[in-house]
Amino acid sequence: STKRSGPELLCELKSKVEVATVTPDLRPFSGLPWASLLPPQPLTSDLGPFKSCAVVSSAGSLKHSGLGKEIDSHDAVLRFNSAPTVGYEKDVGTKTTVRLINSQVMASDDHRFLSSSLYSAGILVAWDPAPYSADLGEWYNRTDYPIFQQYQKYRRLHPQQPFYILHPRVEWQLWDRIQANMAEAIQRNPPSSGLLGTVLMMSLCEVVHVYEFLPSRRKTELCHYYQRFYDAACTLGAYHPLLYEKNLVKRMNRGPDRDIFTHGRVTLPGFNSFNC
Ligand code: NCC
Q1: pLDDT tens digit string along 198-224?
Q2: How far is the CA of 57 from the centre of ligand 1 (A)?
Q3: Does residue 84 contact residue 63 with C-beta atoms inside 8 Å?
Q4: Is residue 276 in some structural domain?
């Protein structure tokens, strides 16, 4: 059935999506000279557990939200891509525990990934749209962007900063859950960073608050709170199955609808805080 209840959806995610990162013992990495640059343990055994966490979408509707203090009051905060805090503290806070970046950010020149201080706070986690159900070996030779060269360069420049690579299996385990819960066929593109980051925090935290993923009354066509660029597709999706992702999150929300309207806030339980 595509009409699973919130608790059923949560149980499905918990049992079928495993937030794994690439470790140096996995092939083909184990045979590569730079494998030792990868963290020896997966992210979930190095970080957390946290009590209360915030996932801060990059949506334009965060602008003038005044949510900064509330966001900073969480034990851990996840942000995305090149979303800044400096200059936007009042609306998005200052704390960055994890930054989830897509491979475009790592590899395209305009983000100055290797030199900008934007990326130096917190733990980095990178992901790249892998071919559907590909194994690591196939993906390694076919990444969307040359992330492994960039990864090695970054690690050598910033050896003290923890930096993980998401196992591409996670994208497709999550995509399968989205598809299984929709009546129509959805595009076979990986979920947005937003949903990936939400599930990542659900595996590290007791409770996760997601801000402006489901838009509040401040809903706007302004794409990001940090850029003067307007496109409704940022909120509704084009490449990513974003509308379907938002539908799932809405169904799993344990907070009152009013929180969405006023704060753009959704409340999700961490995977270790409920039994199935
Ligand atoms: O825009 P992006 O996402 O960096 O935003 C991070 C996550 O916030 C949620 N979001 C964002 C804007 C908005 N109006 N509503 C939202 O709900 C989404 O969940 C989004 O995932 C990405 O997912 O990685 C994405 O990255 C950008 C871009 O690559 C980076 O910002 C770097 O410039 C993509 N844009 C383009 O490729 C042009 C975007 O499609 C997805």
Answers
A1: 999 999 999 999 999 999 999 999 999
A2: 8
A3: no
A4: no
Q: What is the ipTM of this complex?
A: 0.99
**First-last CA distance in the chain:** 18
Identify the domain containing residue 76 by its residue range. 6-268
| Six-digit token string for 216 | 């509040």
Residue identifier of the C-alpha nearest atom 32 of ligand 1: 105
**Of all atoms in ligand 1, which is nearest to the CA of residue 110?**
33
Q: What tokens appear for 181 in the block? A: 């819960």
Report how many domains make up the chain.
Answer: 1
Q: How far is the CA of 1 from the centre of ligand 1 (A)?
A: 30
Contact between residue 14 and residue 200 where contact means Cβ atoms under 8 Å apart: no
Question: Which of 261, 241, 250, 236 shows the shortest CA–CA distance to 59?
Answer: 236
Q: In angstroms, rounded to a whole number, what is the distance separating the alpha carbons of residues 93 and 84?
A: 10
CATH of the domain at 32: 3.90.1480.20
